[in-house]
Amino acid sequence: MYNLLRQKxxxxxxxxxxxxxxxxxxxxxxxLRDQLNLPDHDSKRYYLGIGLIYNNSRFQVSQHSSFLQNxxxxxxxxxxxxxxxxxxxxxxRISPRFEIRxxxxxxxxxxxxxxYHIKYPDASKNEQTxxxxxxxxxxxxxPVHLKFRSDRIGNFRVYMFGGAKFxxxxxxxxxxxxxxxxVKLTKYDFGVEAGIGFNFYFPVFILSPEIKVSNGISNIHSxxxxxxxxxxxxxxxxxxxxxxxIFEG
Length: 249
Hints:
Keywords: Signal. The chain is mainly β and 249 residues long. It is built from two helices and nine strands, in the order αββββββββαβ.
């Protein structure tokens, strides 16, 4: 009888512990639901945002066939240079998983360096054996992305995206006349983009750190056979890594 009573007490303790765990889990779930920030945001069809941007830019250089016959410019090397920008975000939800995002206006201040190794520097033009030419661009862009979103886990979500971009260079120097020290660029550029981002839901806004790779597919070099620093180059394609902090609501 003593053993039977002890077994019944043990079973009662197990049942009581299980009941307490069920009650506790329900309370935790209720608290999590109560602490969910911006719970109605996922029902929005369209919403706006603003992005603060840091970019790291460079050229992809393709040498011209005449480069081998050039006895002055020996080497042309691109360098990575940082820049900054600002963008407006327009997002349209098309399903629980997919969104279309247009970034306009996007204004980027991008800087790209080209370093030349000169065999016969011209002393009258203050040339040295190593010369660096800085190319500045003010890019007004319109990227369009298709976003794929994960499930929302509390106040956190991951998303991936890909798409295309169109850019107009407000600082294009392709029509410059006195351009001996310039590498001239065309006004327009087209490219593809892809990246990943993270949504952090706060009580009044969503903060989204994001990183993307942006590659131009068109040749933006306006080649001039009369310019030493331009004639050695055939094609220039833009390459850019973009870090963004996006605020949405």
